[in-house]
Amino acid sequence: xxxxxxxxxxxxxxxxxLREVARELNMASSAIYRYFATRDxxxxxxxxxxxxxxxxxxxxxxxxxxxxxxRERFVGVARAVRRWALRHPHDYALxxxxxxSGYVAPAGTIVAATRVSAVLGRILxxxxxxxxxxxxxxxxxxxxxxxxxxxxxxxxxxxxxIDALSAWSAIYGLISFELFGHFVGSVKKNDTFFxxxxxSWADRxxxxx
Length: 209
Prior knowledge:
The protein has helices at 2-11, 18-24, 29-32, 39-64, 70-87, 89-96, 110-113, 115-130, 138-143, 146-153, 158-179, 190-205. By secondary structure, the chain is mainly α. The longest helix is centred in the N-terminal third of the chain and has 26 residues, at 39-64.
């Protein structure tokens, strides 16, 4: 796996091939097919490993904050995602960067891919259980099919499902802009800006300090 990861980091995921991996390992090209039938199978393994590594880091961070308040947990989990991304930029780019042409991720990647969102959903679900929230409006109910996303976000009401999915995408958006250089000239201190954005979202979700 380390050889394939190094090749992805050097040449990009689209250029990955089983023959190139075999050459790097000084083995016959036919031998690599004992382990992976296709390039896409290898790519899927790399993707699942990246999701699981990030998910484990986030779950560990949340476990350390098990007695903290909902806001502190929310911010801590988001920081853990960012720390992982900054330490593993090529793995982050593999799962959140430019899609590989022709590659379609199989359903088997879903469990690993939703580990982080499950943590975020659990935090918001617990926050919702501890507070009184208004019933969702007709517009909010129309915005999302709650039954279709509860596996990702946990048992949340309509507005909280929207919050969870919004937070999930916003966190990755902030990190992607930072990693891929889109904040250059706009943001001077990424740490400070990231935390400010997180607290802005926490305010919107009504998470107490």
